[in-house]
Amino acid sequence: MPPKERNIAMMGYRSVGKSSLSIQFVEGQFVDSYDPTIENTFTKVTRVNSQDYSVKLVDTAGQDEYSIFPVQYSMDFHGYVLVYSITSQKSFEVIKIIYEKLLEVICKKYVPVVLVGNKTDLHQERTVSTAEGRKLAESWRAAFLETSAKQNESVADIFHHLLMLIENENGNPQEKSSCIVS
Ligand SMILES: Nc1nc2c(ncn2[C@@H]2O[C@H](COP(=O)(O)OP(=O)(O)OP(=O)(O)O)[C@@H](O)[C@H]2O)c(=O)[nH]1
């Protein structure tokens, strides 16, 4: 069977580890330096349940509560990885706002999402509990994972979970929406 093509966007507040998770998944390494992203695209073929997927992973620039949702990420994407850091309450608040804006822009009540609490290796600095993260994901009907890009903890699981959620949606990418009110 040929690989199925899947477009996935990584979104979240600045410095939560979107690039580090992408690089860990695609290249299997952790680079301990901080270089703010404008936009990067990665591709990787991965196999889940005997099916190959060609994943196009778009690592977006960090967003904050004031950012307008970048409209280019609202169409032709099959699913989203929404990342916060377990050491940053601010990043947890921002991810809620990003999710609300995403739903608004795509005009749908449901979109395949994995909510990710990254940086679990920094457990002494934790300010967002696992229960809080799980509760938020449940309210979105999203999958939830806590990860460490640094220690390669549960990183591949993010993408495998998301590919499964997309499969349940029959792999329909988000279509261009006509209900944006400007
Ligand atoms: N300890 C620890 N540090 C991490 C982890 N993931 C990322 N970092 C660090 O956090 C900083 C930001 O990581 P990035 O991957 O650049 O974060 P980003 O979300 O892509 O940042 P923007 O491009 O600004 O949006 C870097 O110094 C990383 O090394 C992790 O799991 N554990």
UniProtKB/TrEMBL annotation:
Superkingdom classification of source: Eukaryota
GO CC aspect terms: endoplasmic reticulum membrane
Protein name: Uncharacterized protein
Keywords assigned by UniProt, alphabetized: GTP-binding, Hydrolase, Lipoprotein, Magnesium, Membrane, Metal-binding, Methylation, Nucleotide-binding, Prenylation
Catalytic activity as recorded in UniProt: GTP + H2O = GDP + phosphate + H(+)
Similarity comment: Belongs to the small GTPase superfamily. Rheb family.
Entry membrane topology: Lipid-anchor
Organism, as annotated: Glossina austeni (Savannah tsetse fly)
PROSITE patterns: RAB, RAS, RHO
